[in-house]
Design brief:
The structure is a homodimer of 106-residue chains. With 106 residues, chain A is mainly beta. In chain A, 5% of the residues lie in helices and 54% in strands. In chain A, strands 2, 3, 4, 5, 6, 7 and 8 form a seven-stranded antiparallel sheet that branches.
Chain lengths: 106, 106
């Protein structure tokens, strides 16, 4: 059992779009990820997913509009909802999702 | 569906030790809470619990030592582990735990 520091964990993350698992509880994973550019449209049929922005600015495109997140803001994407994360500049994010979640969706 | 802002949510929290639910995903609740002083020793038999410090400094007493958390540090208390949160000055925390979790433990 040890505490986790955001600053320390991000020192181990070199690549973008490559989540690092930093915790697990109740079958859910806590992951840190560096984002830059845009991902592809996808959805998770059976899993809700939380994006918590720690640094930078993240746009989550949804089919019916965009959600723009700044530091210390989060958004929960309900299961089944198509989304595409986009950020022009680097953005640092905490993801919270079930262990079964696939990065590119179903 | 809307984004959640830490700053905005805390404006609605007047009392200490009174968690405010700010999100739900996959049967887990996201809660914000203001802490000051000390809680009682307790444990959650079937639930892991995450404490994420946003502001201030939080000590989590465990039977075999203390964990001290500053801003942007978190700790996951495994199910069944006795703990007591303590902070001399105000501390603002995100809790992540199953919907079934009771504040005072089992």
């Amino acid at each position: 059992m040890k505490k986790i520091s955001v600053a320390e964990e991000f020192q181990h993350i070199d690549a973008f779009w490559s989540p690092r698992q930093v915790g697990e509880l109740n079958g859910q994973l806590v992951k840190f990820v560096r984002l830059k550019g845009q991902f592809e449209w996808h959805k998770h049929t059976d899993e809700d997913e939380m994006f918590w922005v720690m640094e930078g600015r993240l746009t989550i495109r949804l089919r019916d509009g965009d959600i723009v997140l700044g530091p210390n803001e989060f958004f929960i994407i309900p299961r089944g909802v198509e989304h595409m994360p986009v950020c022009e500049d680097e953005c640092r994010v905490m993801l919270f999702e079930p262990a079964a979640t696939k990065q590119y969706g179903d």
